[in-house]
């Protein structure tokens, strides 16, 4: 399946959340990630984020698409280069 | 059509960007909005954001879905209450 994940973490935890998400997905904007993922990996990703988060301060939203064809995207402004070497 | 819009604006412009997006969409997370929108209104929204943004600092990403049925969502943590009276 193809997912778009957005998060809003307190700055104390945001670097850890970023690191977790980048193991599974492509980083496309400050707090937005996307990519193909298996059901098993998505469960693992959710578990990792839930273990990190403070449920009264942080939030995660996952958009699950049947497939990438359901979606078209438009971007304007700065494009994030997720080179994986930066952080 | 149904869209999910995410942005990353410099803090000097982020309040204005928020105000623009809330005219057209539901605010669901710090920098994430979603909702049904017509083609004409989407063009207007894009024009307003492009007029505001600094293209070397800010970014906007729009996910356009054929329809809401293409999508399932999961949220955990804090849910944003977009009561329109707060800002």
Descriptive keywords:
homodimer, 87 residues, alpha+beta
Verbal overview:
The structure is a homodimer of 87-residue chains. With 87 residues, chain A is of the alpha+beta class. Chain A has a single domain (2-68), classed as Alpha-Beta Plaits (2-Layer Sandwich). The first copy, chain A, has two helices and five strands, in the order βαββαββ. Chain A has helices spanning 14-24, 39-52, and strands at 2-8, 26-29, 32-36, 59-65, 71-77. Chain A has a four-stranded antiparallel β-sheet with strand order 2-3-1-4, covered by helices on one side. In chain A, strand 2 (26-29) and strand 3 form a beta hairpin. The first copy, chain A, is globular, with a radius of gyration of 13 Å. The N and C termini of chain A lie far apart (27 Å). The relative contact order of chain A is 0.29. The mean pLDDT of chain A is 89. At the A-B interface, strand 1, helix 2, strand 4 and strand 5 of A face strand 1, helix 2, strand 4 and strand 5 of B. Strand 5 of chain A pairs antiparallel with strand 4 of chain B.
Main-sheet strand order of chain A equals 2-3-1-4
Tell me the distance between the termini of chain A. 27 Å
Strand content of chain A: 25-35%
* Main interface: chain pair and counts: A-B, 37 and 37 residues
Total helices of chain A: the number is 2
User: What integer is the average pLDDT of chain A?
Assistant: 89
Query: Tell me, what's the shape of chain A?
Result: globular
The share of residues in helices of chain A is 25-40%
List the domain count of chain A as a whole number.
1
**How is the biggest beta sheet of chain A arranged?**
4 strands, antiparallel
- Classified by CATH, the class of chain A is Alpha Beta
Secondary-structure element series of chain A = EHEEHEE
Class by alpha and beta content of chain A: alpha+beta
Number of strands of chain A: 5
Which CATH-level-2 architecture of chain A? 2-Layer Sandwich
Radius of gyration based on Cα positions of chain A: 13 Å
Unreliable stretches of chain A: none
């Amino acid at each position: 399946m193809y997912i778009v994940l957005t998060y809003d973490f307190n700055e104390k935890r945001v670097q850890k959340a970023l690191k977790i998400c980048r193991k599974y997905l492509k980083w496309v904007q400050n707090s937005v990630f996307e990519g193909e993922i298996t059901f098993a990996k998505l469960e693992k990703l959710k578990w990792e984020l839930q273990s990190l988060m403070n449920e009264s301060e942080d939030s995660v939203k996952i958009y699950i698409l049947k497939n990438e064809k359901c979606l078209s995207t438009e971007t304007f402004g700065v494009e994030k280069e997720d080179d994986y070497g930066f952080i």
